[in-house]
Design goal:
The chain is an alpha+beta fold. Helix content is 41%, strand content 33%.
């Protein structure tokens, strides 16, 4: 598995951001080959800071999303959030086997 880590600064309200992810971004991601899950994290003490992790079955599919559909996602989010950091990580499934099994089931 592979993960894309994006840290964002929310310009609007948290609920507006989450609704946009749920209603506009998630449908795009679900159509992408290899997409498994999206995990949004909102900082307790800094509600304007959000980390979103998308989980993919392979690095190739994550990179395909990055080149083909991520610009569209950024366009949707530009009025309410600004990405500050993007990272790419191999998910070490040997340490989270239960989680990995749930995602691919």
């Amino acid at each position: 598995m592979f993960a894309r880590f994006t840290e964002l600064h929310i310009v609007g309200k948290k609920e507006e951001f989450l609704n946009t992810i749920r209603n506009q971004v998630l449908p795009i991601l679900r159509k992408q080959p290899g997409f498994l899950e999206i995990l949004p994290f909102v900082a307790d003490n800094r509600p304007e800071k959000v980390v979103v992790i998308s989980i993919w079955d392979s690095k190739a599919n994550a990179e395909k999303h990055e080149s083909e559909t991520y610009p569209r996602v950024l366009e949707i989010l530009k009025a309410i959030a600004t990405p500050t950091t993007v990272g790419k990580y191999q998910v070490e499934t040997s340490l989270c086997a239960h989680f990995a099994e749930l995602l691919v089931a």
